[in-house]
Recover the amino acids of this structure.
């Protein structure tokens, strides 16, 4: 990819919307599901025409050669999405051995963390810092899965990024990764969002909330490197998924 052309588009793009519109979308998507069914090891709920099922197992880890069970978190064993009678275990797209660990907190964010795999090889795991009981948190989980899949493809190609190695290619790559993770999220959520308002809220959060922060940061970094001041036009940053 051409770094210059990509970043020129970023600099010319305005993703800002009124703060109250974005916050309204965040609030509506964060409401816990009303038809939630759960046990200690299973959660099921509906989103529009779709059905989600999350199956958990104990989160086990090794320390000093001993196996322990974390009492404050669980691992997702299956993440099944059913839409129009077609079921998909979304975790099947992850590299083998990737863990998705969920903590019962209220941070509403996710992270990619490095972990030591077998034979001392590093691997990436996903950590979610809240119950997955709302559309917002489903989007957080899908976003992080999208990141892991993207990283895995880069590893297969032995690449650090998808751009030509010139000035600001690191900034362009960060934007590309966020767009890719958002695209993966919408790939699974869009078929379920037949309600126009719900669909608009998801796009607001992914595009005008999450991605807009990266666009603003990119513009700032580019102009900072050029030693020019920038007016961000916004005094706040919405907390992003990662």
């Amino acid at each position: 990819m051409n770094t210059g052309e990509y970043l020129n588009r970023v600099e010319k793009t305005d993703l800002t919307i009124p703060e109250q519109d974005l916050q309204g979308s965040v609030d509506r998507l964060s409401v816990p599901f009303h038809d939630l069914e759960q046990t200690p090891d299973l959660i099921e709920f509906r989103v529009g025409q779709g059905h989600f099922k999350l199956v958990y197992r104990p989160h086990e880890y090794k320390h000093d050669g001993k196996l322990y069970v974390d009492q404050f978190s669980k691992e997702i064993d299956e993440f099944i999405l059913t839409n129009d009678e077609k079921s998909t275990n979304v975790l099947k797209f992850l590299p083998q051995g990737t863990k998705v660990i969920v903590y019962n907190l209220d941070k509403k964010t996710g992270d990619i963390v490095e972990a030591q795999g077998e034979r001392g090889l590093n691997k990436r795991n996903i950590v979610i810092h809240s119950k997955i009981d709302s559309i917002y948190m489903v989007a957080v989980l899908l976003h992080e899965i999208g990141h892991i899949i993207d990283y895995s493809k880069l590893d297969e190609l032995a690449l650090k990024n998808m751009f030509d190695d010139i000035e600001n290619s690191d900034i362009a790559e960060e934007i590309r990764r966020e767009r890719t993770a958002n695209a993966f999220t919408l790939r699974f959520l869009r078929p379920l969002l037949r309600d126009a308002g719900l669909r608009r809220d998801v796009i607001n959060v992914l595009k005008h909330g999450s991605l807009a922060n990266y666009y603003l940061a990119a513009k700032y970094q580019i102009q900072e490197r050029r030693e020019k001041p920038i007016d961000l036009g916004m005094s706040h940053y919405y907390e992003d998924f990662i």
Observations:
- The longest helix spans residues 196-225.
- Residues 234-239 have pLDDT under 50 and may be disordered.
- The radius of gyration is 19 Å.
